[in-house]
Specification:
Helix content: 10-25%
Distance between the termini: 41 Å
Radius of gyration: 15 Å
Number of strands: 6
Strand content: 35-45%
CATH class: Alpha Beta
Order of helices and strands: EEEEEEH
Structural class: alpha+beta
């Protein structure tokens, strides 16, 4: 699987949600509304989900294997860290 593009759509610093991301696989499939969440110990990636009739959230799209999950997470978090480090720091005059 070749991840051809990761786009950081929106960043925020409220509560635990840090960013909303879109991912393109092999220039053929786009997955939107992937979330980057600040967990207790680290950032993690939450795949797009919706609430079912019982009120539980279910992933709409998700990696099947641990290797695919790691590849997706590594690529998304790397893009996020690159994006954040390229942004001007608040409180610093240029």
């Amino acid at each position: 699987m070749k991840i051809s593009d990761v786009r950081i759509r929106k960043t925020m610093n409220e509560a635990r949600l840090r960013a909303v991301v879109s991912l393109t696989i092999e220039d053929a499939i786009a997955i939107h509304d992937i979330k980057i969440i600040q967990g207790d110990e680290r950032l993690f990636v939450a795949m797009p989900s919706r609430r079912d009739d019982a009120g539980n959230f279910r992933d709409i799209v998700h990696p099947i294997s641990p290797e695919a999950r790691k590849q997706v997470e590594d690529k998304i978090l790397s893009a996020y860290h690159g994006f954040i480090s390229s942004q001007p720091q608040e409180g610093i005059l240029s």
